[in-house]
Design goal:
single chain; 163 residues; alpha/beta; Rossmann fold; 5-stranded parallel beta sheet; globular
């Protein structure tokens, strides 16, 4: 059993960047599909976008983050928006791929699934996210189609893990 940073102060916006090797292993070893219009809605500095570009070199990739920041070199377009307020507009994403802030994960997943219902939605989350009485109605409405378990827990803080 583990806890999410028990006893520590959470970073602003729950910002914990995914180690590049985690994204790379998943996208190149396990993830199948050919995607052409991709959104990384919680892009941070763009580490996941870089690996998405490596995996899908011809795709149109858009990066968004609620925090203002410099351009992301591997993205075709960068936004500084609250993803939960993004509207579908003309964007027909076929893949939405991110490591959402844990505190907003349910809302982000719901928004992605309901706004871009034809997109494949991939979220990197702790396995414990599945086990919650509070989220049972959510999972009943949005059942998971596939789960990939990381056998070695990565550090998102650079200070090791709690397991």
């Amino acid at each position: 059993m583990s806890a999410t940073n028990r006893g520590t102060v959470r970073r602003a916006y729950d910002f914990y960047e995914t180690p590049e090797e985690v994204t790379r292993e998943f996208l190149f070893e396990y993830f199948e599909g050919d995607f052409h219009v991709i959104l990384e809605p919680c892009a941070g500095s763009g580490k996941m976008v870089k690996i998405l570009r490596d995996r899908f070199p011809l795709a149109w990739i858009e990066a968004n983050d609620i925090r203002d920041g410099p351009p992301i070199p591997y993205a075709n377009k960068r936004y500084t928006l609250d993803f939960l307020k993004m509207l579908k507009g003309d964007a027909n994403y076929d893949l939405i791929f991110t490591n959402p802030p844990y505190s907003l994960a349910e809302e982000i997943i719901t928004h992605a699934l309901e706004t871009w219902s034809k997109a494949t939605v991939v979220m990197l989350l702790r396995l414990n996210f599945l086990g919650s009485q509070k989220r049972k109605p959510f999972w009943d409405k949005h059942p998971v189609s596939e789960i990939y378990v990381l056998s070695k827990r990565p550090s998102f803080t650079g200070k090791g893990t709690d397991a």
